[in-house]
C-alpha cells in the first residue's frame, strides 16, 4: 500500500488532497516564495487524525509540513517538493472560555480574528493582535511566537500561553492544557514548541490568557523631527500613560509610499517620523483629558511637532491603514520584508546606514522603514524592479551584516523559515545551534517535521 493509500484509509479519502485538488493556498505563504506544490495535503478534523497521520508519515520517514493560515513571511510553511502538508484549517473552533481563570481554550486552526471576537463577546481581550488577524491561525501564531502591535502592553505570543497540546513526530500526543499561571513541575515543555515553526511537533490546541477588555482606546498620530525624539517620546509615554498599548513608528519614506497607495493624507506637511500611539482606558472624560494633556505636554517640550487625535473609529482606522500597508505587496515588485531587532536606541542609526548601503548598491530601489519601535523591532521594505535572485541575496547579505554590527537579531518576530536559515549564525552561536540540533534530534529523530526550516 502507498503512503497516500494508507493516509486515506486512516483519515478518510476526503481528508487527503492530491494532484489538481491541491490549490494555490498550499504552495506559498505571504512571502510568496513557494515554488512547488506538496505531494499531498491532509486536512485533519481531530487530534487523533493528526496523530494517525504523523505516525504513518514517521513510519515511512515521510517529510511533513505543518500549515496554518499561510500568512508567514519567512517561507516556513512552504513546501520544497515531495512533502505531505498537514493543514490545520479544519481543526478549528473555540472550545471554552473560562471567565474565572480568564482563559480561552481553542483548536490550533482557529483564525486569530475569530478567537479575538469570541473573547470580546465574553467581555475579554485576547491580547495577541497583528495585521494578518483575518487569515492567520492561533497554531501559526504560536509556532512563530508572533509579535504584533500589542506586544508593548501584553508581551509576545509566548507570554500569553498557559497550556498547549502538541502531537510529536511519531504521533504521540502531549496534552499540557494547563490553565494555571504557576506550575513548576519540571521542564516547561510548552516553550520548546512555541516559536519552533513546526520543526518539533504539531500544535493542535492551546489555552491562552485573556485580559480585561478595555472600554475605550485613545489613539493619536504624532509627527516628530528625529529618531532621538521618537525614543524620548516613547519614554515619556511609558512614564506618564497608565496603559500604553501601541507605539508604532513610520519613517518618512514609508509614509510617503503608503499614504499615497492607500489614498489617505494624514498631515498636510511631511515629517521625518510619524508615530501611532494608543492608550487603553475606561472611556471617561478624565482619561480623554489626561491623554490630551500628555500630548500637549509633549508638544510644549518640543518632543513632537504635530498631533492628530482620532475623534472616531474611522480616524483611528485611517492611521492604522497607512501603517498596515496591505497594498504594499501588490504595488511593490519583488518586495522583501526584513524584520530585525536591536537595542532601541540604535535603530535610527541602523536605518540610516541600511538605507545608504542598499541605495548605493541598488540606486532607484524602494527602501522604507517602519515597525514596533517600542519592542525594538524594525521592519525594512525593499523593492527593486526586475530584481534577480542574486540581487535579493545581496540585500540579505547587506542587511544581516549590518544587523550583526549593531548586535541585533535577524528575526524579531517573523521567524527563520527557509528565507533566513542561511543567516541564523549571524544571531546564534555555534554552541546554541548545536543545542538546537540536539533538541530537534531528540524530538524528531527521523527529521520528518518541516525539514530544511530553521536549522
Ligand atoms: P503559517 O504561515 O501557516 O505558518 C508559519 C509557521 O508555523 C510555519 O513554519 C508552519 O510550518 C508553522 N505552523 C503553522 N501552524 C502550525 C501548527 N499548528 N503546529 C506547528 N507548526 C505550525 N507577524 C508578526 O509576528 N507580527 C506582525 O505584526 C505581523 N504582521 C503581519 C501582517 C501581514 C499583513 C502579514 C501578511 C503577515 C504578518 N505577520 C506578522 C506574519 C504572520 O502573520 C505571522 O507569522 C503569523 O503568526 C503566521 O500565522 P499563520 O497561521 O499564517 O502561519
Ligand atoms: C507588520 O508589523 O506590519 C508586519 O510584521 C510586517 C510585514 O508585513 O512585513
Ligand atoms: Zn511586525
Automatic annotation (TrEMBL):
It comes from the Bacteria. The keyword Flavoprotein applies. The keyword Phosphoprotein does not apply. It holds the Pfam family FAD-oxidase_C. Its cofactor is FAD. SUPFAM superfamilies: FAD-binding/transporter-associated domain-like (SSF56176), FAD-linked oxidases, C-terminal domain (SSF55103). Belongs to the FAD-binding oxidoreductase/transferase type 4 family. Residues 34-213 form the FAD-binding PCMH-type domain. InterPro entries: FAD-bd_oxidored_4_C, FAD-bd_PCMH, FAD-bd_PCMH-like_sf, FAD-bd_PCMH_sub1, FAD-bd_PCMH_sub2, FAD-linked_Oxase-like_C, FAD-oxidored/transferase_4, Oxid_FAD_bind_N. Keywords: FAD, Flavoprotein, Oxidoreductase. It comes from Mycoplana ramosa. This is FAD-binding oxidoreductase. Signal peptide: none annotated.
